[in-house]
Amino acid sequence: MQKPNIKKLSAIAASANIIHCVVKDEKSLADCIAEQQIKINKEDLPKIQAYCYNILRRYEFYRFIVDALLDKPLKNKDKDIYHLIMSGIMLLNEGHLPAHAAINETVKVTRKSKKVWAKNLVNALLRRYQRDQSRLHSAANAHPVSQYCCPQWLLTKIQQSYPEKNDPDAQWQSILKANLLHPPMSLRVNQLLYSREQYLKLLDKNRIPAHACPFSRHGILLVNPVNVEKLPGFAEGAVSVQDSAAQYCAELLKPQAGENILDACAAPGGKTLHLFESCPDIEKITAIDISTKRLKKVQQNITRLANSQQNKFKLIAANAGEIEAWWDKKQFDRILLDAPCSATGVIRRHPDIKRLRKVTDIAALCQTQQQLLNNLWPTLKKGGLLLYATCSILPEENTQQIKTFLDTHNDAQPVHFEVSLGYSCEYGQQLLPTCQTDKNTANKGNSDGFYYCLLQKK
Asked: Do both 211 and 308 map to the same domain?
């Protein structure tokens, strides 16, 4: 049967559709791109992804400008045109196209839509932006929400959590600036196959510029991102893509030979496999995730990185906090609880978080984290270790969560540790999203935001 002839969208048309999907339908960027995949030319996908990331990183900035250009707000049914105008402004601002080409490319989209009336509007607004760009940018940068491209509720939370303290390089400002940068492509070398130095030589041989990450024993930062298929030995498990902050999990938990390990909330399995790589002589790793679909990603990683050691892993699709549904009463020596969280530490990698997360989500997430901590604690042996981790920078999900837990569990005690990034809290260590040019020495390292606290059972 012949496949229907589906008209392909231009890169800017697809980008506008995807942004509209994220904002209107409150779906993840990945899901919205997947929905548009059939309408996209394969060779345009990297460009479309770049456009979408640019828009979502600076959404509040571009929204301020579109609103300033419009004489009156567009109707809800025309928000697709709103996001097309926003996409055109992004193209003029950071699309690396001549201005006339960017405008023509955007206006052309309206001609192929059913809203031909929008042609003149889009053309007029983009040309007005071109003329008044400097004034509009200055006006946008006069307001913290549009300057730092952050929803008001999250801006307020970050400012309250990381106040200025009369410091010109205030933490809250550093965090928000880092969120607007393109993150590095970070690798974790599989020490069972290569040392970091050996793999760096392999990259050099394949003309892939890279350098060792100073804050991770196994980490490498690529100078320019590449498709994983171009990484030497990737298919054979030589290396994985993982931020340097996330690589502390195995270093802090330190699994030992013969131990029984639990990775709760394991998908997609990067930390599961890192635990195994750090000690292949463990007895078993039980990896649990509530999503059967996401658990398949864990299995894929096991197949790629530890195919001959499949017997070392036990995968369970379940709610890790409902232990009666999956626990066999055999206690674990060590537990990694990488808890569901607001993901406010990885916004630079997932800028759609700013569109999808709501202030009302935080209390519900804290309740889930507390339930997981309380319910998993009985599954840990006396003397055993539990590493609580989140990719959040909000204290209520981190230090405050641990304080609440310790106040109600006399058999738990925090274990002191030091890592090269971030700073020590009352309990645990907070890593902040940073860039290498950050003037605050505690923040250097070009890493994501992460929180760790190591607990031992008395």
From this structure: no
Tokens of 174: 């550093």
d(CA 188, CA 221): 9
d(Cα 163, Cα 87) in Å, to the nearest integer?
34
Cβ contact 379:327 at 8 Å: yes
123: CB partners within 8 A, 6+ apart: 103, 107
| Judgement on whether residues 319 and 389 belong to the same structural domain of the protein | yes
Do residues 315 and 324 make contact, with C-beta atoms less than 8 angstroms apart? no
Per-residue pLDDT of the chain (458 residues; tens, 9 = 90+): 445 567 789 999 999 999 999 999 999 999 999 999 999 999 999 999 999 999 999 999 999 999 999 999 999 999 999 999 999 999 999 988 899 999 999 999 998 888 889 999 999 999 999 999 999 999 999 999 999 999 999 999 999 999 876 564 568 998 999 999 998 899 999 999 999 999 999 999 999 999 998 878 889 999 999 999 999 999 999 999 999 999 999 999 999 999 999 999 999 999 999 999 999 999 999 999 999 999 999 999 999 999 999 999 999 999 999 999 999 999 999 999 999 999 999 999 999 999 999 999 999 999 999 999 999 999 999 999 999 999 999 999 999 999 999 999 999 999 998 887 788 999 999 999 875 444 443 344 578 999 999 999 99
User: How many structural domains does the chain have?
Assistant: 3
Evaluate whether residue 30 is within a structural domain: yes
DSSP-assigned letter for residue 396: G
Q: How far apart are CA 82 and CA 67, in angstroms?
A: 9
User: Among 391, 425, 435, 453, which one carries the catalytic annotation?
Assistant: 391
CA angle 279, 402, 284 (to 5 degrees): 20
Cα 432-434-439 angle, rounded to 5 deg = 110
Q: What's the predicted TM-score (pTM) here?
A: 0.93
Angle at 165 between CA 163 and CA 167, to 5 degrees: 105
Tell me the C-alpha to C-alpha distance, in Å, between residue 68 and each of 118, 169, 446. Answer: 17, 30, 35
Could you confirm whether 391 is annotated as catalytic? Answer: yes
Pair 280, 340 in one domain: yes
> How far is residue 95 from each of residues 85, 204, 320, measured CA to CA in Å?
14, 31, 44
Residue linked to tokens 């990381």? 162
**What residues pair up with 456 in beta bridges, in sequence order?**
385, 413
Supply the range of the domain harboring residue 231: 185-241
Q: Count helices and strands (H / E) in the chain.
A: 17, 13
Give Dmax (Cα) for the chain. 71
C-alpha to C-alpha distance for 140 and 63, rounded to whole angstroms:
9
Residue type, 278: S
Q: Cβ neighbours of residue 115 under 8 Å, at least 6 residues apart? A: 78, 80, 81
